[in-house]
Amino acid sequence: MEKEKKIKPTKELPAGFEDRQEKELLIRDFVISNIKEIMINYGFQYLETPSFEYTESIGKFLPDKDRPGEGVFSFKDENKWLSLRYDLTAPLARYVAKNFNKIPKPFKRYQLGTVWRNEKPGPGRYREFLQFDADYVGTKNLQADAELCILISEILEKCGLDKDDYTLKISSRKFTEKLFEKLNIKSKDQVLTILRALDKIERLGWDEVQKLLGKGRKDKSGDYTKGANLNIEQIKIIENALKNETPENDDVLEIIKIFNAYNFKNFKFDPSVIRGLEYYTGPIFEVNLNFEVKNSKGKAIQFGSIGGGGRYDNLVSNFGNLDYPATGISIGLDRLVFALMQKKDFSLKTVRPIMICVFNKNNTNQYIEILNKLRKANISSEIYPGEGKLKKQMEYANKIESPGVIFYGEDEIKKGEVKLRNLKTGDESSIKIENLTNEIKKLI
RNA sequence: GCACGGGUAGCUCAGUUGGUUAGAGCAGCGGUUUGUGGAACCGAAGGUCGACAGUUCGAAUCUGUCCCCGUGUACCA
Fold first, then answer.
1. Measured between alpha carbons, how far is A214 from A194 in angstroms, rounded to an integer?
2. pLDDT at A221
3. Strand B proximal residues, A:81-110, Cβ < 7 Å
4. Residue A18 CB closer than 7 angstroms to strand B?
5. Å between A119 CA and B75 C1'?
């Protein structure tokens, strides 16, 4: 043994994984309880599936490699690859295929769960995050699609967003299909490149996207992206098609008709909505926030969409011969919470305990007596959990934002009363023990 | 993946053209009246300067490789 070094374990977290503190968690709880209420209201069933699936079940099996594709966290278990789920839709398809004879048809379910993506994290983008997902499986009725849009709006507004804080955009895969016909483009590669370029309009603007449709584009850092090599006439055709504010597609028109029946108005037809590449087959939806979101250093960041979805009519059929249509929508809850935290008029009250100071350990029994009284009255409370002088105890109480501390030292015990100090005002008063809980309730 | 910028104390950062004992603020610890917090004072402590290799009499500082973080970009079911 030559150089036996003391190895300190790192305190850093893997990239894209975050500790989450109380404020964020409370807002998250608030969001989740709103979601549950609305989902019940809309008649959805609640479902949970495991974090791990067989890699092949969630569509990540690459037959020519012995390792699953990047993008998922995987490990090999007894010769079979397992992966952490990367969304809740793939597990739903698996669930439906597995339980096909049990479930009602159509099947409406919602799910809340953590998903993992093994990719480069960015501002507001993590590798572990909470997703909400609602789907209709087994119906081609576009009322399902329409209801999903209405429902997602209702969720956002119930969580405190105003109508103009977000934009719900709808389009359809049929729009781009038609466009490619018009352009006479058949190469699959070129189609994909064009779709990817169009997907960036929101972020980069038309001028930059135009470069991506043509030769290519150099970004701020000097990195170069190859374009789709369209000619000027073709780009012009796309530009004109995108300007078309009135949808021509049957499915979008139908959905808008249904929106009208629901008296739902807060949506926009936007043909530049692309989302995913091969997965969707019909109408697609996306929700973007309209207010600025900042990172931890106060810098405004590109926030992207907080949710979206669409119709995917052949996902379930991958598991067998079932031809089974579906449509779904999902929200990235952590991102929504992150944004909500920055809405200036948004705050949730956190409950902090009343603290009983420790003067003398011999009086612990008396302290506990008071503590029990408070806790029985449902008042969050604690005996100072550390060791040390009063000053230190006060500093602690201040740090945890306790609304008040109780002094119950020798003098007070003798008199049968306690001293209650309001930590916001600094006021202090002597109170008979019988009146204590009432006095404290006034203070919190 | 590609491009650019960073890794110095628990945290935020300073560190001149390479020069010997690497600095500050905050936090923490100990005091300043052993019963009173929300930026009071004093003191001590705290670092293989991201890792490894190289150049040099001498490296936090220069070179190379790697790792990690940030931002943009690409990919993204």
1. 10
2. 67
3. 86-87, 89-90
4. no
5. 9
A278 touches strand B (CB under 7 A): yes
Quote the tokens at residue A369: 């007596």
pLDDT of the residue at A382: 95
Which three-class secondary structure state does DSSP give residue A67?
A: coil
How many residues are recorded in chain A? 444
Task: Tell me which amino acid residue A91 is.
Answer: P
SS (H, E, C) A231-265: CHHHHHHHHHHHHCCCCCCHHHHHHHHHHHHHCCC
pLDDT at A278: 72
Longest Cα–Cα distance in chain A: 94
How far apart CA A27 and CA A407 sit, in angstroms, is 34
ipTM above 0.95, yes or no: no
Interacting residues of A15 by C-beta distance below 8 A, sequence separation 6+:
A120, A121, A127
- Residues 6 or more apart whose CB falls under 8 angstroms from that of A278 comprise none
- Nucleotide with the nearest C1' to A359 CA: B35
For residue A342, CA distances in Å to A21, A319, A347, A362 come to 15, 43, 9, 47
* A5 Cβ nearer than 7 Å to chain B strand: yes
Please identify every stretch of chain A with a pLDDT value under 70, giving residue numbers as ranges. Answer: 1-8, 60-70, 221-222, 277, 295-302, 321
The per-residue pLDDT for A4 is 36
pLDDT of residue A297: 63
Q: What is the pTM of this model?
A: 0.89
Angstrom distance (rounded) from CA A371 to CA A374: 5
